[in-house]
Amino acid sequence: MKKTIAFLLLLFLETQVNAWGFWGHQRINRIAVFLLPPEMISFYKENIDFITEHAVDPDKRRYSIAEEAPRHYIDLDHYCTLPCDSMPHRWKDAVAKYSEDTLKAYGIVPWHIQTMMYRLEDAFKAKDKQKILRTSADIGHYIADSNVPLHTTENYNGAQTNQVGIHGFWESRIPELFGEDYDYFIGKAEFVAKPSERIWATIMESHRALDSVFGFEKQISQSFPADTKYAFDTRGVTTSKMYSEEYTLAYSKMMDGMVERKMRRSIKMVADIWFTCWVNAGSPDFKKIETHQHTAQEQEEMEAEEKAWKEKKKAMYGHPHAETGSEGVK
Ligand SMILES: [Zn+2]
Q1: pLDDT digits (tens, 9 = 90+) for 47-56
Q2: What whole-number distance in Å separates Cα of residue 169 and Cα of residue 27?
Q3: pLDDT in tens, 254-297
Q4: Surface-to-core class of residue 28, CB atoms within 10 Å of its CB (0-12 exposed, 13-18 middle, 19+ buried)
Q5: What's the mean pLDDT in 297-302?
Q6: How far, in Å, is the centroid of ligand 1 from the Cα of 55?
Q7: How far from the centroid of its chain's Cα atoms is residue 287's Cα?
Q8: What residues contact 9, with CB distance under 8 A and at least 6 apart?
Q9: Can you give the pLDDT at residue 163?
């Protein structure tokens, strides 16, 4: 048993990250359904389990598709310092200034959300049920990622500031511990006239929050002795090292509800964008939307993603993915 614990602890030395953890992504997509207008809500409610469950597909896909990784973030600090006015918002302008290869190397989330908007609009126009659901679930994921401050920096997991583990701490451990008590009364979906502006405003807001995200953790860390900073959790044969509850609470308090605010904003934006795509597609009547089963090809794709993810997870023990708050802790 001792051996197992020692081995498992080794697993947390390095990490890849995954915004909001699985819990957060699923919760964001699920709650967004309830903000939709009457014309849309029945369809989405009927399919709420699909929308919820598939909120994490884009992260799973990173194990099977090479182009997937940069769709989840943008390392803004590679290009500029705040207020970052020099950053071109249009894809074409950004390519002209930095080259496509560079953009892909440092993340494309703001543009990918727009690509996905066109896809969702097309799915509505085609009245294709499966495509609407899959694209809605996917776009919810990318929107939620864009609201996470740590998805806008090269220092995404604190490696440059001796804060390794901060990614999973912020986006998974905090919402998993306190997210059930957040206020999810968020209002109604609204039409977004200028999606690009909204997306970039979100990215900039995420980026501006980094000061607090890093600064507060540093402060808290200095006032907590190491033995109270972490806790160990044993479930079955697995022992996880994670940030202790007191430490997590102290950090969350110091940020004054930032994680809750970001989660609420993610939910609102997901609903706004779903609604906007539907309006832009001419507000199709959901009663006329085709209910076809997944085609053999769609089914195969989904199964391949799931399989690659499961196999990779097994094979990647040295590089765990921060799907829960206990992962990625050094
Ligand atoms: Zn992601």
Answers
A1: 999 999 999 9
A2: 17
A3: 999 999 999 999 999 999 999 999 999 999 999 888 665 667 77
A4: buried
A5: 77
A6: 9
A7: 31
A8: 239, 241
A9: 94
Separation of CA 14 and ligand 1 centre (Å): 18
Q: How many residues does the chain have?
A: 330
What is the per-residue pLDDT across 231-251, written as a single tens digit (0 to 9) for each?
A: 887 878 788 788 999 999 999
pLDDT tens digits, 178-225: 999 999 999 999 999 999 999 999 999 999 999 999 999 999 999 998
Between 74 and 301, the more confident residue is 74
pLDDT at 16: 44
Tokens of 183: 């206020």
The beta-strand segments (E) located in 140-277 are 230-235, 238-243
Q: How far apart are CA 286 and CA 305, in angstroms?
A: 29
What number of other Cβ atoms are within 10 A of residue 287's Cβ? 8
256 CB-contact burial (10 Å; exposed 0-12 / middle 13-18 / buried 19+) = exposed
Q: How far is the CA of 31 from the centre of ligand 1 (A)?
A: 18
Tell me how far apart the alpha carbons of residues 252 and 175 are, in angstroms, rounded to a whole number: 10
Task: Calculate the alpha carbon distances from 290 to 118, 128, 129, 259, 293 in Å.
Answer: 19, 6, 6, 38, 9
Cα separation, 186 vs 160, whole angstroms: 36
What spacing in Å lies between the alpha carbon of 229 and ligand 1's midpoint? 27
d(CA 254, CA 178): 14
Strand pairing partners for 321?
Answer: 16
Structural domains of the chain, with CATH: 2-315 (1.10.575.10)
pLDDT at 12: 40
Residues with CB under 5 A from ligand 1 (ion): 19, 59, 72, 145
Q: Nearest 5°: CA angle at 226, between 220 and 231?
A: 95
Q: Are strands 230-235 and 238-243 parallel, antiparallel or unpaired?
A: antiparallel
Rounded-to-integer distance, Cα 148 and Cα 212, Å: 13
Asked if 290 contacts 127 with a C-beta cutoff of 8 angstroms, the reply is yes
